[in-house]
Amino acid sequence: MADTATTASVAAAGAANASTDAPSFQLGKPRFQQTSFYGRLRHYLDIIDPRTLFVTERRLREAVQLLEDYKHGNLQPGVTNEQLWSAQKIKQAILHQDTNEKIFIPFRTSGYIPFGVPIMVGLLLPHQKLASTVFWLWLNQSHNACVNYANRNATQPLPVSKFIQGYLGAVISAISTGVGLKVLVKKANKLTPTTRLLVQRFKLLPALASANICNLVLMRYGELEEGIDVLDGDGNCVGSSRIAARHALLEMALMRVVLPMSILVVSLIILSMLEKTALLQARPRLLLPVQSLLCLAALCLALPLAISLFPQMSEIETSQLEPEIARATSSRTVVYNKGL
To answer: Rounded to whole angstroms, how far apart are CA atoms 291 and 266?
Structure first.
């Protein structure tokens, strides 16, 4: 009788799973294939879903418990693949992958767009005074530094001194570059007003790109010295690799250049065209809401595209790593968490 009941339960669970279009659930694995850019794009669109910001503590506990039940083979009959994928999505959006601690809402990946858009609008405000430029550059780098820290690869501890060093380096880099270019533009008397306005706005691109890279390198420099954990196919740590850390930082540096470039180029080109329309010239008060919508659209487009350039768990051949790591595993490849 017990065997019959068990068989019936398994059959019911299988039928429930078969009734959905969701792929078979794999604990800790992405729902969409990470070998293609399109698969990573769908994966990160899931991760940046802002609806996860409103998940209650009770719903989070239920999601974590459901995954624990699956892990230990205690899953109740009737649980579908879709429910399991949804539970994993909630957990990964709220809890850090390495520490399993809750990430503060403004610094979650799903919170980057709603909390980042007001900052981008402030950065793109025309005719800013020096104090305003400094404030928005400082606020942007402060937000980025906190996002970097909250979503870092935490397999190696980051001293507070390193965080402060990275934060100050990014702020100084952004402000010095942004203010320096602002002063140069003011002294360029031969520029037409339109050209001057475009240069003033696009000056943010080198300022933000250099600051993002400076922030990334200084805050995660410890990874270059100590290495980051690399895992075999079974999820077992086979060592800490400095070579893998260099690969992770190179991938992140490229992403941190592509992201502001995509946002600024798209939004500023469209904004400069709209400013010439009769509607905005007759109603200049509409400029700020239009600019806000442009920043929102550009960020919604640029963020998933930029972070989809590389998979979250990047793969590297063991032959490219340190000899002691290559000897510690029989796997041809290992993976590492590149961070965000």
So the answer is: 12
CA 206-211-217 angle, 5° bins? 130
Task: Strand 228-231: give its sheet, edge to edge.
Answer: 237-241, 228-231, 333-337, 313-317
**For residue 54, what pLDDT is reported?**
93
| Calpha distance 224→248 (Å, rounded) | 10
Closest Cα partner for 315 from 260, 258, 241, 262? 241
Query: Contact 99/64 with Cβ under 8 angstroms?
Result: no
Q: What angle do CA 129, 135, 137 make, to 5 degrees?
A: 105
Q: Which amino acid is at 16?
A: A
Q: Where are the domains of the chain?
A: 2-94, 106-337
Look at residue 167 in the predicted model and tell me its pLDDT: 80
d(CA 238, CA 275): 57
Within 10 A of 233 (CB to CB), how many other CB atoms are there?
12
Q: Which pLDDT does position 340 carry in this prediction?
A: 67
The sign of the dihedral angle between the CA atoms of 65, 67, 71, 75 is positive
CA atoms of 184 and 200, how far apart (whole Å): 10
**What secondary structure does DSSP assign to 255-292, as a single string?**
HHHHHHHHHHHHHHHHHHHHTTSHHHHH-GGGHHHHHH
Which residues of the chain fall short of a pLDDT of 70?
A: 1-21, 153, 155-158, 185, 188-202, 340
Cα(157)–Cα(98) distance, integer angstroms: 11
Tally the C-alpha atoms within 13 A of residue 245's C-alpha that lie toward its C-beta: 23
